[in-house]
Design brief:
With 399 residues, the protein is an alpha/beta fold. The protein contains 13 helices and nine strands. The termini are far apart. The chain binds 2-acetamido-2-deoxy-beta-D-glucopyranose (6 copies).
């Protein structure tokens, strides 16, 4: 288009030149041609510089500027350089987004979260953080306990909350949960949508490069040790804490679907609690798994519960040495049935919490310890009052 217009222009100019020569006004025409050629050289040079500056900016700015750059370049008339978003996004925004809300869909989010740096050393002073991922329907009834738990430890944790999409209540601005809700979708118990929500939480948390450990929690979970102890326990562990075992009974092997073969065979089949704790390596594997996830989604439907089998089996297949095979979230299955015991106000006492904390022996980093559980469930909202009463002494909260 531009080229042909230019040709027309040149032809036009030469015709006029011939006419002018015949008319004898050669001198005036020569000056006009000279001026025009200087002007056009400047325009072309300007466009060239403009283009290079744009390319340079597109490479040095945050990834969002690619699409902005693309759309501005593809529009027929170039907008003035001043409109280009030079100031949007600095390095610190890129390694740790300030806002957890965004407009990415799941596919875009998982893809972005699957990116792993290939330079081991961080170009900034990185303090590893623990990401607390709350998977809840609505309000967190025990939020007040968590507020006390987190108090004074800013910079060592991040919080992400996945709720029902219709839940729109906003916590007070002073709360640690303020503005920590991620774009959420409906979740059905025992279905693939549950695992989708877990992956969504993980993916959002992976966008912050300082998050090193990732704990999944529900609205009925409580911490049973103080923040410092939990932080050190997780950050210094060489393994993740995903309950994973081979259950030979009907509720374990009985849920294996032959259609999972050959991707997953019965000897790989594992069961475990959905309430995981993952390190960054495994979190990255879970969000970027395109091999096992679709097969489970297709062939592990109730009475096969994907949230109890997918991750325990995945980690056994891809990186078993990274898992301790035990959960750090205590729960009471002793009564049997499809759901674990739920504790009410009358159940909560210092004795009860101490029994949970010191009940068993387990291995941590290869040696035996009594500290096996960091969290416990399921606590009814009515337990908040006794918990707040006991917590300062038990958990060393500075109330
Ligand atoms: C870039 O622009 C082209 C042409 O308008 C369009 O087809 C393409 O989808 C755009 N890409 C992005 C990432 O916006
Ligand atoms: C656990 O093992 C890792 C790797 O060997 C080590 O860096 C870490 O300090 C150990 N943690 C504790 C509490 O001993
Ligand atoms: C199941 O898979 C494991 C490893 O992936 C393999 O060693 C084993 O032979 C397989 N068993 C069957 C019955 O295919
Ligand atoms: C966890 O289970 C896997 C697979 O069964 C096994 O390879 C691994 O050694 C176990 N890890 C520990 C700490 O026992
Ligand atoms: C835990 O181990 C200690 C010794 O290391 C032992 O005395 C105690 O009985 C064990 N507790 C349980 C519940 O097995
Ligand atoms: C946290 O718990 C540990 C272990 O129980 C204890 O040594 C420490 O003093 C506690 N910290 C606070 C601030 O209470």
């Amino acid at each position: 288009m531009k080229q042909s217009r230019f040709t027309v222009f040149v032809k036009d100019l030469s015709t006029r030149f011939k006419n002018e020569v015949r008319g004898g006004s050669l001198h005036v025409t020569a000056s006009i041609v000279l001026c025009l050629s200087i002007a056009s050289t400047m325009v072309i040079l300007g466009m060239f510089i403009n283009d290079h500056v744009k390319k340079y900016l597109a490479l040095s700015e945050n990834p969002y500027s690619y699409s902005l750059c693309n759309s501005s370049l593809s529009s027929p008339s170039l907008p003035p350089l001043i409109q280009f978003p030079i100031t949007s996004g600095s390095f610190s925004d890129w390694i740790s987004p300030k806002e957890v809300w965004h407009s990415m869909n799941d596919k875009e989010l998982l893809w972005r979260a699957s990116m792993v740096p290939h330079i081991d050393e961080y170009p900034y002073n990185r303090t590893p953080k623990v990401a607390f991922l709350f998977l809840t329907r609505g309000r967190l009834p025990l939020a007040q306990l968590w507020e006390k738990f987190f108090k004074g430890h800013e910079g060592l944790y991040s919080i992400y909350v996945h709720t029902s999409p219709e839940f729109t209540e906003v916590p007070p601005e002073s709360s640690v949960f303020y503005n920590r809700r991620i774009p959420s979708k409906p979740v059905e118990w025992g279905r693939a949508t549950m695992v989708d929500a877990e992956r969504r939480l993980l993916a959002n948390a992976l966008l912050d490069f300082s998050n090193e450990r990732f704990v999944l929690l529900s609205e009925t979970c409580i911490p049973i040790l103080n923040f410092t102890t939990i932080y050190k326990y997780l950050i210094n562990s060489k393994q993740s804490f995903i309950g994973s075992f081979d259950d030979p009974r009907h509720n374990g092997r009985g849920r294996y679907n032959k259609l999972l073969w050959p991707t997953v065979n019965l000897s790989d089949w594992r069961k475990g609690s959905q309430w995981f704790e993952l390190d960054r390596k495994l979190a990255g594997k879970m969000v970027s798994d395109v091999k096992y996830y679709p097969v489970f989604r297709e062939h592990c439907k109730p009475p096969c519960y994907m949230d109890e089998h997918y991750l325990p089996t995945l980690v056994t297949k891809i990186w078993p040495e990274l898992n301790s095979n035990r959960s750090i979230t205590w729960v009471d299955w002793s009564a049997g049935g499809p759901h674990p015991a739920r504790f009410l106000r009358k159940d909560v006492s210092e004795n009860f919490l101490n029994r949970i904390r010191n009940g068993i022996n387990c291995t941590y980093n290869g040696s035996i310890t009594k500290v096996c559980f960091l969290f416990a469930r399921k606590f009814h909202p009515s337990t908040l009052e006794p918990l707040l009463r006991i917590a300062p002494a038990l958990l060393g909260f500075n109330s």
